[in-house]
Amino acid sequence: MREVAFVRLHQDTWREVEHVLSDSVSVGPDRLAELYVKLTDDLAYASTYYPGTKTFAYINDLTARVYHYIYKNRKERRKRFLTFWTEEVPLAYAENTPALLFSLGVFVLAFLIGVVSTLGDDTFVRLILGDSYVNMTIRNIKAGNPLGVYQQDDGLGMVVQITLNNLRVDILSCILGLLASVGTAFIILYNGIMVGTFFTLFGLHGSLGDGLAGVMIHGTIELTTIVLAGAAGFVIGNGIMFPGTYTRLQSFVRAVRLATIMLVGVFPFTIVAGILESFVTRWGHVSIAVDVLLIVLSAALLTWYFILLPRSVRTRESHVAIVHTA
């Protein structure tokens, strides 16, 4: 059978499976089992006659998702919390890598705009950061304490204020995806420009090294969470604008569910960033070795959880699906 004919023959079944996975359609256990059997049969056929094609990759991925959907509901409730963090969050990011890359691209572009604009116009930094903040930062740099802004309040007061503000930014980045992703893009652009402007201000006054070493102790995680939450917002926007084979409502519901998982997965890291900013950054950098160690550990943790683990979980799910077709 030609591949096109095979797709046409079975696409209704696959579409029904997609709707079940998005929770937009409810089916009984017997029907779900029937769909799974059909899907594994299709996967076995595709692996024989269409190996390496997009059709095979699609059915393989769909089968893995169904397997996960069925068997995750059989796990004991006491394991639900663990599997959320070790499977559901990583899978949500694995399935939405394009949105994550787009969010990162917007942030990098905004950062560069902040750098170039500050270098080209000495009034731009005051427009973005405000006169009082710029004047205070310059005074601190001249006094030999470039990170003095982080030492104004007690640590406990700072951690509550900073963490709540950062959580608010994360939530806004996600929710504003409802505005066809425009709101999410605005939040990321604003924060990226502000960060680029901030570091350029330090560089223009000869303290870029101090700024990077001190701020990136918490900034490595904090800035990454902005990008991650932005990806969740873009998932919602894409669900509204590009429903694909779903109805627009079904696509929206599915996108909100995935974005919520992605957003919640960011929260612990946002809290950690607030703690680091309040109790570590505020003391300035004790030694460059300690600063670098904290930054590297933060980057390694983020890379593992949001890049390597999602790939591993996705690969494992796909492998399990293939094994169960045998």
From TrEMBL:
Keywords: Membrane, Transmembrane, Transmembrane helix. InterPro entries: SpoIIM-like (IPR002798). The chain crosses the membrane at residues 99-119, 175-203, 223-243, 255-276, 288-308. Pfam families: SpoIIM. PANTHER family: SLR1478 PROTEIN. This is Stage II sporulation protein M.
